[in-house]
Structure formats: C-alpha cells, structure tokens
Write a structure and sequence with these properties.
14 helices; alpha/beta
Length: 457
C-alpha cells in the first residue's frame, strides 16, 4: 500500500525523540461541516464491541459510513445492514487504499495487536481516531500515539466507556477531596480471564473457512496455522474471542480490564509512569505463548509535589486483597472491585469502576456524605465527546480520554504485562523506556512487525 508519510519504525523512533516528525497540523485536513454534511466514519472491526456499541452510537449521532473492514465477512452485518451502499473489506489496508478520501475518522475495534497499526495508519492520513482499549499492544506503540496526538491535533479517544460515567468520576471526587487522606496503597481486582489462558497451543493446521481472511486477521503478528476448536463455547481457538490470552494478539486480563478499573486512580492522582513494577503472585510465563491464569502485579509510583509515593496492586484470575475488617459482618469481597487505603481511611468500590464507592466503615460514609465535585460530569457521554471534536463543534482535545491521557495510561498498564511475562522486580526509566539490569524486559518494550504491517507517521 502506498503511504507517502511512512517512515521505518527505527527512523520514526529516532526522529520522534528529537521532535522532528508529525509536523503537519491535521486541522488542515479537516472538512468544514455545513448543515447538509455529516461525519463519515470507517469501522475497522465490525463485530464485537463495534457492532454492540460503536456503530449504533455513531449512527444515532448522524454519522455516515462509506466503508468498513473486518477480517471475518460473517461479522459485517452491523455495518452492512445499516449502510447498504457501504463497501466491506477483509483487509483494512485495502479499504484505506480505495476509500481514504471518503471518510473523516475511524473507529478501531480489532484484537489488541491491530490497534496501533490501524490507528497510526489512519492518523497518517489525517483521520480522527477512536480506538478501543487497551490503546496499543506494546509500550512503544503507546508512546508513539502520544507523540501523534500532540503533533497532529486530531480528535482522539480510547474506548474505555466508563471514563464518562458519574460513578467513576465520583470515585475521583472522594480521592481528590481528601476523604481518605493520602493514598498509601490501592488494590483493584477482576474476574478475568474468562477465556482460555495458560494452556497448550495446538500446532496442527486446519482449513481456514472461506469467510475468514487469516492473513489480515494475523496482521502484524507472526504467522501461525489456523486452528478452530469451539469446545469451550467461545468459538475458535483464536478467533473470534480467545485471542486475549495470547501474548502475540492480546494483553491478557490486564489489557482487558485495567484500562477500566485502574482509571479512577490514574485520573485522580495523575501519577505518570511507575518507577518499579513487580510480579507478586503467579508464575511468569516466559516464552510460553499464553498468559497464566492468575497474577498479582505491584506498581510503585514516586512522590509528586505534596503527594507521597504509593503502591498500586492489580489482581486477576481470582486473586484478591485481604478482606477489610471494616466491611459489615457477612459481606465478602465480590469478584471485581477496588479498595483504596489512605492515611485517613479506606474507600471501597464493589464491582467495576463505574460503580459509586463508599467510605469504610459505613458510619464514616454516612457522616462524610457526598464530597465536593472535583471532576466535571460528562453531559455528552463517551462517544459523543469524540464525535463533537471530530466535527469541530468542540476542541480536538475535548474527549476526556484522548490519546494525551490514554497513551501514558496504557503504557503503564502494558508494563504490568511485561512483568507478568518475565517475573521478578523491575525498575523502569520512562525517559529511555528501559528497565535497569533487565534486558529481557526492555526487549519487550517493542516488537517486530510482519512485512507489510509496519506503519508509522
């Protein structure tokens, strides 16, 4: 595919460190939207989250769709049924080649390993981008999209929809208001994985069904034989769901849920990058192809201004923190939740990050009441924030989870994935994106891309 803006990944990494790439202002690409015009969006990934949320939400807002892409043509329905004149493709590179002048923005809802290539290709052509969480597959990719956001001034948003909810922002109100004092340690846990993980991978090849473009699905990852085994009820061994458990395609439980459930703390405290990451529980999976079934990972964030250093613990696969003694008798920790321990008390959220929290014990919660609002509520909602920025009705950085926030956040999350793979304690230097005395971990900051899938701005 012809891309006049493409640089090699090595050249881009060197140039970006010097601030010499992405010098065009992408506002020059933008259309002036009149009363008879509407935003045209191309969808990369049509089934799954796109069919359930992205497409219905954007159609309701009035967006059109000239083209869409999904490696599995059986999953085209959510777009094909709404826009009969739109053209479907199994390879999004072909869609860009033939239709890039017809759309203004993209929504990326692919497996994790395709997020960055699809997004950076779109941004290189001046397209606004909404990309599902986790924003990228490697920390290096996150850093590049942070640079891209700063230089292009495109409207961007990472798809962690809870970011716009009152419950999540209510958690920030408690933390920033000083209800629990300074955070000492935070614990977040999830019921994930709910897919295959930590098991042998079959090597025998099976026939690829005619509806699936296996070359396009594997994309930038190393090619492997297609295999299909629906015995677990989730469909194929890789496609359409079990890819999350594979290092080459997904980011495990951390990638699936941390961009939701760590969001309140990351937003409230704006801690930047951790200086220390440690696998506390669970075995490192090393060169195995899949994440293990359960882990606990600790992130150490340094002091910042008047805020002291704190530890943030991630638990998955059934791991949980100790039950706080302040919980009412008979109430146990659910399979998902957050517990934030400060110098003056504890804050507890049962369930996912969108749920309103409560102070512990219950008497303190009643006495304290609702804290003063610290974070503006979203009147528009997650999708509309991005839509309004794309059309120019709001500034390009109006979406609250734009890449200037989402990229550093995702980089932090993916450092945890590296800890899950290599094990032990690691010291991270965010300026050089390296780990002290851990060449095995530093090697995982980036990855090799299969020929034809290495895109840069």
């Amino acid at each position: 595919m012809k891309n006049p803006n493409k640089l090699s990944r090595r050249t881009f990494l060197t140039a970006s460190a010097a601030g010499s790439v992405l010098t065009m202002d992408a506002r020059s690409y933008g259309r002036v939207f009149g009363a008879a015009e509407r935003l045209n969006v191309a969808y990369i990934g049509v089934g799954g989250i796109a069919g359930g949320q992205h497409i219905p939400q954007l159609q309701k807002l009035g967006a059109g769709c000239p083209a869409y892409a999904d490696a599995d043509s059986k999953r085209w329905g959510p777009a094909a049924d709404r826009w009969s004149d739109a053209k479907g493709y199994t390879d999004y590179r072909e869609m860009f080649d033939k239709h890039h002048k017809e759309f203004d923005a993209v929504m990326v809802g692919t497996p994790d390993h395709q997020h960055y290539p699809a997004t950076v290709l779109a941004m290189s052509m001046g397209k606004h981008a909404y990309t599902q969480k986790p924003l990228t597959h490697t920390p290096w990719e996150s850093r590049q999209l942070s640079i891209a956001q700063e230089k292009t001034k495109l409207a961007t948003q990472m798809g962690n929809q809870g970011h716009a909810t009152d419950g999540l922002r209510g958690t920030i109100d408690y933390i920033r208001s000083g209800a629990i004092g300074d955070l000492v340690e935070g614990h977040v846990w999830t019921n994930r994985p709910i897919w295959r993980q930590g098991m042998p991978v079959p090597k025998e090849a099976q026939k690829v069904p005619s509806n699936l473009d296996w070359e396009a699905w594997v994309g930038p990852a190393e090619m492997r034989p297609f295999h299909h085994d629906p015995a677990d009820g989730w469909g194929g061994f890789y496609h359409p769901f079990n890819w999350r458990g594979f290092w080459d395609f997904g980011c495990g439980a951390l990638g699936d849920m941390a961009c939701h459930n760590l969001d309140p703390i990351y937003w409230a405290l704006e801690p930047g990058y951790p200086t220390e990451i440690e696998l506390m529980d669970g075995e490192a999976f090393g060169d195995a192809p899949m994440y293990v079934k359960n882990t606990t990972v600790r992130f150490r964030f340094p002091a910042k201004g008047d805020r002291p250093a704190f530890d943030l613990y991630w638990h998955d696969g059934g791991n949980k923190p100790e039950r706080p003694e302040e919980l009412p008798k008979g109430e146990n920790l659910p399979d998902q939740g957050g517990l934030y321990i400060g110098t003056k008390g504890k804050l507890y959220a049962a369930g996912d990050s969108r749920n309103f929290p409560r102070l512990l014990p219950e008497a303190k919660h009643k006495e304290y009441g609702r804290p003063e609002q610290q974070i503006e509520r979203s009147a528009e909602g997650h999708h509309k924030e991005w839509y309004l920025a794309c059309t120019g009705e709001k500034p390009y950085d109006f979406p609250k989870c734009n890449f200037s926030y989402a990229a550093p956040f995702t980089e932090m999350v993916l450092l945890g994935c590296i800890a899950q793979r290599v094990g032990g304690k690691m010291e991270y230097d965010s300026k050089t994106m390296t780990f002290s005395d851990r060449d095995d971990a530093t090697a995982l900051i980036t990855k090799e891309y299969r020929e034809g899938w290495d895109f840069s701005l």
